[in-house]
Design a protein that fits this description.
four-stranded antiparallel sheet, about 40% helix, 14 strands, alpha/beta, about 350 residues
Length: about 350
């Protein structure tokens, strides 16, 4: 599966009493679905997943699933400290139609997080997961930074499709890309090389029933080699035209203030908390880079760099207040996270004066 571009790791809205505000969750998801973002991530760190009960996690996954546009990649954060609980939540996400699982590094028993433990954990999850798995490294929160060498070793597993690398270390990104460059897998994409998932194909097939839709190999559109369709051959699924593309181990980053240099280092996109409040501003950096306009990408990066850095320092309360300021619903965070002071709210408004959504 292809995961290129910008994905917001959406927040979980709460009422003032701390209960999940599902209508606001669905409203946010619908708005993100109208942006140029490639998809959304539900129950990442920004989603306060670690502060939710097991049932709340399932309810949040189900609510977001019902609101997302069919053409957006849908990733579930399913990482829990044990492999068995991670798999249970991953299986539920698969049952309700998610496209991939993002699994954070286990970290609570830090002295036990040796290479053998991490290898066993991710290989067990990847072996049994019904969804492709993305490793999630966020040492600022977990206190554990998975070594690049371990990621490169894990990348050989066919069900480990990539990593969200949130350390902000651009040289580590470069090392990950270089160390996994030999991995190439065939993935299905649209005719314009955007992501296609089994959920999207199922929707396209269902939508064509009674409409004469069928699967057709259109090898003649791009010629053939040795009597076999070329890699550019088009397959029609209902009204969706797809083709195959070679994709490697996909490195996405989590530091919006370093998105442009990370893309230059080989990252294919970002799962960015800053995209929760300014998805288009993040996408503009990616789009300029994709089009080869380095100067425009640099200017777009400079525009958000200070604000993105400050959001990383302020954490979820800062992101949520910024969302309120930019027209999304942020609302309160759950304790022990506390509301921002008036001075910090004023600071955020100044920082975002030129980064309105």
């Amino acid at each position: 599966m292809l995961v290129h571009g910008i994905l917001p790791p959406i927040t979980t809205p709460f009422y003032p009493d701390g209960n999940v505000y599902f209508k606001k969750l669905e409203s946010n998801v619908e708005r993100y679905s109208r942006t140029p973002c490639a998809g959304i991530v539900v129950l990442g760190s920004t989603g306060e997943a670690i502060l939710l009960s097991d049932q709340e996690r399932r309810d949040v996954l189900k609510s977001a699933r019902g609101a997302v546009a069919p053409n957006k990649v849908l990733i579930a954060g399913t990482g829990i400290e044990s492999a068995i609980e991670t798999l249970r939540l991953t299986e539920y996400a698969a049952e309700i139609g998610y496209d991939a699982a993002m699994v954070r590094t286990p970290h609570y028993y830090k002295t036990q997080m040796q290479p053998a433990n991490i290898l066993a954990f991710y290989r067990t999850v990847a072996d049994r997961s019904p969804l492709p798995v993305i490793i999630y490294n966020f040492p600022q929160a977990t206190g554990y930074d998975i070594p690049a060498e371990l990621v490169i070793e894990l990348a050989e597993h066919p069900n480990l499709m990539g990593i969200k690398e949130s350390s902000g270390n651009v040289e580590k990104v470069r090392k990950l890309v270089e160390g996994t460059r030999h991995i190439q897998r065939s993935v299905t994409v649209t005719e314009t090389f955007e992501a296609v998932t089994p959920r999207m194909l199922a929707a396209a097939t269902a939508g064509s029933r009674g409409d004469g839709g069928e699967l057709v190999q259109v090898g003649a559109l791009a010629g053939s080699v040795g009597g076999m369709p070329s890699s550019a051959a088009v397959t029609i699924v209902g009204k969706m035209k797809t083709r195959q593309k070679e994709a490697g181990f996909q490195v996405l980053v989590g530091a919006a203030q370093k998105l442009h240099p990370s893309l230059d280092a080989g990252a294919v996109g970002g799962i960015l908390a800053f995209a929760c409040l300014a998805p288009t501003s993040c996408y503009e950096i990616y789009a300029a880079w994709k089009e080869g306009d380095a100067e425009l990408a640099r200017l777009k990066q400079e525009r958000i760099a200070i604000a993105a850095q400050r959001m990383g320092e302020l954490g979820i309360p800062g992101v949520k207040y910024s969302m309120d300021f930019n027209g999304y619903f942020g609302g309160p965070a759950r304790q022990p996270l506390l509301p921002l002071t008036g001075a910090i709210r004023d600071e955020i408004e100044r920082l975002l004066a030129d980064v309105r959504n």
